[in-house]
Predict the structure.
Amino acid sequence: MSKKTSAPVSRSGRFTSGPGEDVARFTESISFDWRLWWHDIHGSLAHAAMLQRIGVLTRAELKAIQVGLRQIAAEIEAGTFTWKAELEDVHMNIEAELTKRVPAGAKLHTARSRNDQVALDVRMWLRDEIIEFGRELRDLQRALVELGAANAAVIIPGYTHVQRAQPVYFAHHLLAYVEMLDRDYGRLLDCFARVNVCPLGSGAIAGSTLPLDREFVAKELAFVDAQGRPLVTQNSMDAVSDRDFAIEFCSLAALVAMHLSRLSEDVILWASSEFNFIKIADAYTTGSSLMPQKKNPDIAELTRGKTGRVYGNLVALLTLLKGLPMTYNRDLQEDKERLFDTVDTVRASTRLTAAMLRHTSVNTAVCAAAASDSALLATDLADYLVRKGMPFRHAHHAVGAAVALAEKLGRPLGELTANELASVNAAFGADAKDSFNLGQAMARRNLTGAPGTKEVAKQLARWKKVLK
Ligand code: ARG
């Protein structure tokens, strides 16, 4: 039984008409929770196997339930299963259909409530999504490293306040995002650990009087730690009303979206005619319907724009939970669309950003021209004076005076003569102008984490190894 995630239920035509229609429309969740069908069926298969072990189901009954559930799964996958809105949700739709076909289906819900069932389904679904999303995050890091490595010699101005500050390798700038995404990846793994706990057996609120084997179910559904020990929730009331795991995901997703949005903003700036540092391939841009010359960075803009809904989903979930008394309340049904949308949005943004970067080239000549701005090395000139023994505050002042002189003469700072520099401050020697040698300047920046030639090469090599 493979998993399929594309069988949208059309609302139209599937709803019963009559006086209850408005109520049914308001309360149903099948139009969106059908996405949990695969996990719902697998949760039921594990629950049924456990019920047979404890003597609630005979072997024949278990077999019949298994056959029935697999049949239903095959039909859902083939798109021939009819979802009924009057049956409210994915859980009732599947169970009702099973019971119609298999009398023993009526025993499946023994010691189970939709309250622990939906908590189980969402946790199982999110676990799978986290694994896929983790791969996609890693791949985006890889795309950034690849683009940096392919342009390893490219230097650009680094910016603060969107003003040229100091020169950095283009790769160093990209690796900043690799670091951010690495923290996101770590948060994703942390989140997984708290999603990966089995709530089944909590019943509606108070567990069951029947001797369920919760650990067996947990193992069947791979809710286990690194040693293979089962992980089950420890308080039935918490288990049926907890959605922390979903909020935690939405919270880390908000950070991912924020990081992608900042990267998008850099890409948009760099692709503008004003910067012109990069060129995004046509397939990843769109034209204007009116202005024939336009090539818009839509992937980056939409990624930036979609950050809003990811934040909104987080706030919606936090607000949903804040006033809820223990334990399950129907309000909780509102969790799914926000969670689904968050997962879909950050996964797509991550994938599309990686693809866009893999189709982006660097305008090396433009970058070289921008990086040759000698004002970027004003701080290096101050460091030169510091190496001569001058206190940094004084050096800063002396270079400031040199900048003022250059402005007055209408020349770049780097084109002041040694004599002109010396006229500003006697500490400037004949070798002061060496500070404006960009190659040397980059070779000097070799602190850990600095954009120096050796250091950036080292960081690129480190990431290539981590991400291989
Ligand atoms: N569709 C419901 C939800 O998403 C399933 C749980 C319903 N439980 C209940 N007691 N009505 O939360």
